[in-house]
Amino acid sequence: NAGVTQTPKFQVLKTGQSMTLQCAQDMNHEYMSWYRQDPGMGLRLIHYSVGAGITDQGEVPNGYNVSRSTTEDFPLRLLSAAPSQTSVYFCASSSQVNRDTSYEQYFGPGTRLTVT
Amino acid sequence: DAKTTQPPSMDCAEGRAANLPCNHSTISGNEYVYWYRQIHSQGPQYIIHGLKNNETNEMASLIITEDRKSSTLILPHATLRDTAVYYCIVMRSSNYKLTFGKGTLLTVNP
């Protein structure tokens, strides 16, 4: 298994440009999520999905869109890039949890985005 | 989900045990204690989790106090590759959303 993969690894955008960060997992995980990490900070949740066709907002969703058309893929779209979106973006996936069991989440290697 | 408190940094000599503390005094009965680590800007890596019993796996041991208000992650024989930021997270089993604090920067010295 490749686990969680993210592309690109690095990206430089100009203010106002749009782009899509790709995330894919081959573990048949129901749950996927996007986090951003700013320098010296912990990760903050942007959006998440508990299954194909289902998405919801996390802690910092403004300026980002997501969709989940397949179990494997969970792309993150920046609609109009701003310098405040300069960050490292991590995608994660997990098996579906239930009330009595809990599972670990697997993270991708990250995409380092700079907006000038 | 309950909040956690961790020291900002710790040092450990290579080959010695590293004991990383975490306070979670407001933990609820159905909340798990998770530990993740992040090595130099890589994606976070799961280490271990537990509910109320002590847990051990190939990476570490997790000791949870009887009242569940604190826990300790133990790396039994720390190596230089264990230098990382360690995050203690408390979360309900039905909740997918990890809430990361600033964690503890563990530096393993030769």
Give an overview of the whole structure:
The complex is a heterodimer of chains A (116) and B (110). The mean pLDDT of chain A is 92. In chain A, strands 2, 4, 5, 6, 9, 10 and 11 form a 7-stranded mixed beta sheet that branches. Chain A contains no helices and 11 strands. Chain A is an all-beta fold and 116 residues long. Chain B has 110 residues and is mainly beta. In chain B, 0% of the residues lie in helices and 47% in strands. The mean pLDDT of chain B is 92. Chain A binds chain B through residues 4, 31, 33, 35, 40-45, 48, 50, 58, 88, 90, 92, 94, 97-102, 104-110, and chain B through 30, 32, 34, 41-46, 49, 51, 87, 91, 93-103.
Question: What keywords describe this structure?
Answer:
heterodimer; A: 116 residues; seven-stranded mixed beta sheet; globular; B: 110 residues; mainly beta; four-stranded antiparallel beta sheet
Distance between the termini of chain A: 36 Å
The total of beta strands of chain A comes to: 11
Helix-strand sequence of chain A: EEEEEEEEEEE
Share of helical residues of chain B? under 10%
Order of helices and strands of chain B: EEEEEEEEE
Biggest sheet of chain B, strands in spatial order? Answer: 1-9-8-3-4
Structural class of chain B: mainly beta
Mean pLDDT of chain B: 92
- Which structural class fits the helix and strand makeup of chain A? mainly beta
What is the radius of gyration of chain A?
14 Å
Strand content of chain B: over 45%
- What kind of oligomer do you see? heterodimer
Low-confidence stretches of chain A: none
Give a quick rundown of the structure.
The complex is a heterodimer of chains A (116) and B (110). Chain A has 116 residues and is mostly beta strands. Helices cover 0% and strands 48% of the residues of chain A.
Walk me through the topology.
The complex is a heterodimer of chains A (116) and B (110).
Chain A: E1 4-7, E2 10-13, E3 19-25, E4 31-37, E5 43-51, E6 54-57, E7 64-66, E8 76-78, E9 87-94, E10 106-107, E11 111-115
Parallel strand pairs in A: 2-11
Antiparallel strand pairs in A: 1-3, 3-8, 4-5, 4-9, 5-6, 7-8, 9-10, 9-11
Chain B: E1 9-13, E2 18-23, E3 31-38, E4 45-50, E5 55-56, E6 61-64, E7 70-75, E8 84-92, E9 104-109
Parallel strand pairs in B: 1-9
Antiparallel strand pairs in B: 2-7, 3-4, 3-8, 5-6, 6-7, 8-9
